[in-house]
Write a structure and sequence with these properties.
Oligomer: single chain
Structural class: alpha+beta
CATH class: Alpha Beta
Radius of gyration: 19 Å
Shape: globular
Largest sheet: 8 strands, mixed
Strand order of the largest sheet: 1-4-5-6-7-8-9-10
Helix content: 25-40%
């Protein structure tokens, strides 16, 4: 994939989120967004598919070498945006961020092979390891930056939409998501086919150059989608989001994937919708609690956006709200609530048969034009866009339907292991 021109904007969006719930009404959020506008790619018909095989270190080296130019470019953009958003020299800020957090022990405990992979990315791309390590921590940098902004001590310890359907006769479990991420990733998206040397578990990972994962599925019909929940408590020594995604996709069984997200300590607030051949479930995860969201009793379908529905572990967010005058506090219904309503209206009826085409139409929808499920790059200061839509058929064999752009206007292609 050739580099495309991009819409420069702030770091005010992390993987799985377009408009943060922490963007306070009436706040100076626009000061975090660049005024210089360039436009994204004019069509979304192509995506680089890269096979990563061999040892973890070798897989990282293939990633780094094959995408060297793109990784160098996007990390430079990321640093420029950090400087604008955090009002500091980016390399100094990265050093401070890594000094005041301690994610490595959790990574070594739960996903040690991924540290090797990240080292390989650094070696292959020619970029220093600390920078590449920090680049994996988009969700974690988000809340760290907001701690600095609101002067809240770290604790000691508008737009991703996800859905899942299971239990339909003649149709495998379905799991799907619009991955709404930072607009500066436009043109750097990639689909990895990961083939470990010492494991029978292969994965398709949708992400962008330099990052180990945003979401994906494996050849054992396990899939995972993510929605950032910044309102939930976080911690500086848990397992970061990108590593959790990969850790889930290392599992051979659905039960193992669910156990994994219950066993680990979570660095960031996140909803993980996890699917298997017989079931799909949504879990709101904070640093202190994992809560399953079930839309209604006996539901065989689930949907989620970017606000907590069942997890009340929100002490940090409550401290943020105390520091703000009433007129600057978030107002409801906001973008996330409106998108959730759109999903619910299309999916809640248990008598309605949900097919792959139904899922595609749902994630392509613009039921509320100002708060659409399908989010486009526009000639305005947008924070994020639907960089890709993944629809996973979790049957035997599993099939991935991927549109590498806003799904309402992007062709889906099918991928099989």
């Amino acid at each position: 994939m050739k580099r495309r021109v991009f819409l420069k904007q702030s770091i005010m969006a992390s993987a799985g989120l377009a408009v943060s719930p922490w963007v306070i009404s009436g706040d100076s959020a626009d000061s975090f967004i660049s005024t210089e506008i360039e436009y994204g790619k004019s069509n979304y018909t192509d995506i680089k598919v890269l096979v990563l095989e061999g040892t973890p270190r070798k897989r990282g080296q293939i990633h780094g070498e094959s995408l060297r130019k793109g990784i160098s470019e996007i990390i430079q953009i990321w640093k420029e945006e950090l400087q604008k958003a955090r009002q500091t020299e980016p390399n100094k800020y990265i050093e401070e961020f890594l000094e005041k957090t301690n994610f490595a022990p959790a990574i070594k405990k739960w996903t040690p092979h991924l540290l090797e992979e990240v080292k390989g990315i650094a070696e292959g791309s020619g970029i220093d390891y600390k920078t590449v390590f920090a680049f994996q921590l988009h969700d974690e940098e988000w809340w760290y930056g907001l701690h600095k902004r609101f002067q809240i001590p770290l604790p000691k310890t508008q737009h991703c939409s996800a859905l899942g359907v299971f239990g339909q006769k003649g149709i495998p479990s379905l799991l799907a998501q619009n991955m709404d991420i930072m607009t500066y990733t436009d043109g750097y998206e990639v689909l990895f086919h990961i083939k470990p040397q010492d494991s029978p578990v292969e994965s398709f990972i949708f992400t962008f150059a330099g990052l180990i994962a945003t979401n994906g599925m494996n050849n054992h019909s396990i899939g995972i989608c993510c929605n950032t929940l910044l309102q939930l408590d976080h911690c500086g020594d848990g397992l970061p989001v990108a590593y959790i995604v990969r850790g889930v996709l290392d599992q051979e069984k659905y039960e193992g994937a669910v156990k994994f997200i219950h066993d680990i300590k979570h660095a960031s607030g996140q909803n993980y919708t996890i699917g298997g051949p017989k079931e799909v479930a949504a879990f709101e995860c904070s640093s202190n609690k994992v809560s399953r969201f079930i839309p209604y009793k006996g539901a065989t379908r689930v949907y989620h956006t970017n606000h907590p529905l069942v997890n009340d572990d929100q002490s940090i967010y409550k401290e943020v709200l105390k520091k703000l005058p009433a007129e600057r506090r978030p107002k409801s219904p906001g973008n996330s609530e409106i998108r959730l309503t759109a999903l619910e209206k299309r999916l809640k009826d248990p008598s309605k048969r949900i097919t792959v085409d139904t899922v595609k139409a749902t994630l392509s929808s613009h039921d509320d034009p100002k708060n659409p499920v399908c989010n486009h790059l526009a000639k305005q200061r947008a924070r994020s866009f639907s960089a890709g839509c993944m629809v996973m058929e979790l049957g035997k064999p599993p099939v991935l339907h991927l549109a590498p752009g806003p799904p309402c206007s992007t062709e889906f292609k099918a991928y099989k292991f």
